[in-house]
Write a structure and sequence with these properties.
By secondary structure, the chain is mainly alpha-helical. Helices cover 67% and strands 7% of the residues. It has a single domain, classed as Arc Repressor Mutant, subunit A (Orthogonal Bundle), CATH 1.10.10. GO terms for molecular function: DNA binding; transposase activity.
């Protein structure tokens, strides 16, 4: 039996707007009551859309997770190719 997700779906532009308003000084409580989004959800958006700064630039946690996922996939592909090369080198 499949459970359907209840609730609204918001696009990334709306989420980023809420996060920008939060960074501009609005409280989560005020944003929650004004836009009808739960406080927990706003905190998740703030965490997901707030950039992590470094010397080379800034990434959001979401972008960092995508890069890590791609890196893992590439490592797995490289391991497969190495194993294939070992098999063909024996012949």
């Amino acid at each position: 039996m499949e459970r359907k997700r209840a609730g609204k779906t918001y696009n990334d532009e709306f989420k980023k707007t809420i996060v920008d308003l939060y960074h501009a000084g609005n409280s989560v409580k005020d944003l929650s009551s004004e836009y009808g989004v739960s406080e927990v959800t706003i905190y998740k958006w703030v965490k997901a859309f707030t950039p992590i700064s470094s010397e080379e630039g800034s990434l959001t946690p979401k972008e960092l997770a995508e890069i890590q996922k791609e890196n893992l996939r590439l490592k797995q592909e490289l391991d497969i190719l190495k194993k294939a090369m070992a098999i063909f080198a024996k012949k």
